Amino acid sequence: MSIFLIVDLIENLDRFIDNKVPTKNYSYWNDVVKILKVEFDKRNVKIFQIGTQEDPIIEGVDAFFNDTTFKQSCYIIQNAMCHVGIDSGPVHIASALD
User: Fold this and answer.
1) What is the DSSP annotation of the chain?
2) If we measure between CA atoms, which residue out of 32, 86, 81 comes closest to residue 55?
3) Which end is more exposed in the chain, N or C (fewer Cβ atoms within 10 Å of the end residue's Cβ)?
4) What is the pLDDT of residue 6?
5) Cα 60–chain centre separation
6) CA 89 from centre of chain
7) Dist CA 61 CA 59 (whole Å)
């Protein structure tokens, strides 16, 4: 079984709620992933990114899921060993599923 770390880059919550208010944005994901990959690769930990089709792919992630349903995103987050993200819906989901 794979071990997962989830990074979400959802810059707005249009997929989850019906509004157009952007959430907080974090500009250093490429740096974060680069730092984490050094140790994670040694331990066979994979970094998965969830988001929307409009989100840029973070350099170095092992997989990018940009077309998941709300339910699929919840499943991925629930089965991850850790979730790292900005203040957005997926962070609150991860907190609720902990």
Assistant:
1) --EEEEEE--SB-TTTSS---B----S-HHHHHHHHHHHHHHTTEEEEEE--TTSPPPTT-SEEE-S--HHHHHHHHHTSSEEEE-SSHHHHHHHHH-
2) 86
3) N
4) 55
5) 13
6) 11
7) 6
- Using the structure block, give the residue that is written with the tokens 């979400």: 8
- pLDDT at position 21 is 47
38: tokens are 């050094």
Return the residue matching tokens 């699929």. Answer: 72
Distance CA 84, CA 74 (A): 14
| 84 in Cβ contact with 7 (< 8 Å) | yes
pLDDT in tens, the chain (98 residues): 234 455 554 444 444 444 444 545 678 888 989 998 998 888 888 898 888 888 888 899 999 988 888 888 888 888 888 888 876 777 778 888 77
